[in-house]
Amino acid sequence: MTPLNFESFYNVIDGKLEATAETRHGINPATLEQLPPVPVSTRNDVNRAVEAAQRAAAAWAATPIEERKQKVIQYADAVDALADAFGKMMTLEQGKPLSHAIGEAHGAAYFLKGFAKMDLPDRVVEDTEHRRIVTRYVPVGVCVGIVPWNFPMTTLTFKMGPALVAGCPIILKPSPFTPYCGLKMIELAQQFFPPGVVQVLSGDDSLGPMLTEHPDVAKISFTGSTGTGIRVLQSSAPSLKRVTLELGGNDPAIICSDIDIPKVAARVAMKSFVNSGQVCISIKRLYVHFSIYEEFMAELSKATKSLVVGNGMDESTDLGPIQNAMQFERLKDFVASIKRDKLTIAVGDLENTFSTSNGYFMSPLLIDNPPEDSRAVVEEPFGPILPVLKWDTEEDVIHRANNSADGLGASVWSRDVAQSERMAGQLQAGLVWINNHQELQVDAVFGGHKHSGIGSELGIEGLKAYCLTQSVMHDKDGA
Ligand code: NAD
Fold it and tell me: How many C-alpha atoms does 400 have within 13 Å on its Cβ side?
């Protein structure tokens, strides 16, 4: 394997590393220092990448699936071997603690390999004397994957893994806030895949629309906010692109009365605040049974206070900075509305929650039983803010948990199997956990209900999302 350097960063078009006339740079959110320059792609770059993908499409689709899977596995091994270097780069650009970033890099390899274990067998619908009908899966064509800044590597693999296994070329677009790991991952991929099969373009805010409106792109897979997802859908409509949208969430978690309070409180704190709350499937509304509310709140407060906020490069750090200035300002606005609404704060200090040092630091806030219609409950903060609410009857809490435009994830925590399964079965979300939250597995499908998305990723469904179906009906006597 040719070694990678993590100092200079390029687009990859048709197998070649390319610089652009104009450049921009990310910012280390823990220090506000500038990171190295990255390309700003133009429409010409987009057109050339799409043309290269079109040229590569037929040969890649004709490559036997076992061979494609082998290449994905070899590539995943290379990503895994470089996990420490990718992790360091990710902490610098994204802010999360180094151990979490290295874990994400290993996770990227795990997800790639998981797709390489899946199959797309033909389905024989009928095989009789006179007729044979077979349904098969054919690659959809040139794909584009657009990803956000919270998980720069794993969100990329949710798109490139299935596209490559299904036989599609794919152009990836990392977030302008976190372009570095994505650019390096695709540079590394050139050692395993033919030119034009996996490409990457970095750029500013104008790049996404150039890709989504391109008439020769067959499919867009987008992960990001609901507002942007709607724009992606609109822009994809004129050329009838296939679209997968993984969007925002406002996940409820329901804590029943029979749980081990200290154990669950500690786990819930992590599943709410890890990555400084910047996770689509973190717990964002916590419903605790009234009979244990005070005791649970005491334990949750203890666990929350123990979380160390700091530079992700420091070993003691549990929560890194907020990733970017825009999100930091949004959270300031969120906190201002918490002040205006005069909500009760169980942990945190509204006057001092944002650090004045050289980084976008924010301490976690626990809100004690706010009104159900307050902004803190209704809106996804995408930061370390958790409203905790009381519940009494199952019917009431299920109604409140489902009373959201979002439907990404949800959980029930109970030792009573019958109760937890009964409640879980009524939750309107694409992923429902019992006694857990925020965990993904490559072979378990993941896709938001309601405003949290269209289509799905992961699981065999996530692979089929890069295919068109084709039924071949053979009338044996017809000629
Ligand atoms: P965002 O929507 O601002 O940006 C996501 C990506 O879309 C970026 O690469 C951005 O450059 C690009 N983009 C922006 N405007 C575009 C346009 N008009 N056309 C095409 N692309 C465009 O989201 P973000 O702030 O990066 O991420 C945070 C959001 O993502 C949160 O709401 C979070 O819940 C959601 N998210 C969802 C999932 C999921 O799997 N459902 C996973 C991670 C994050």
Answer: 22
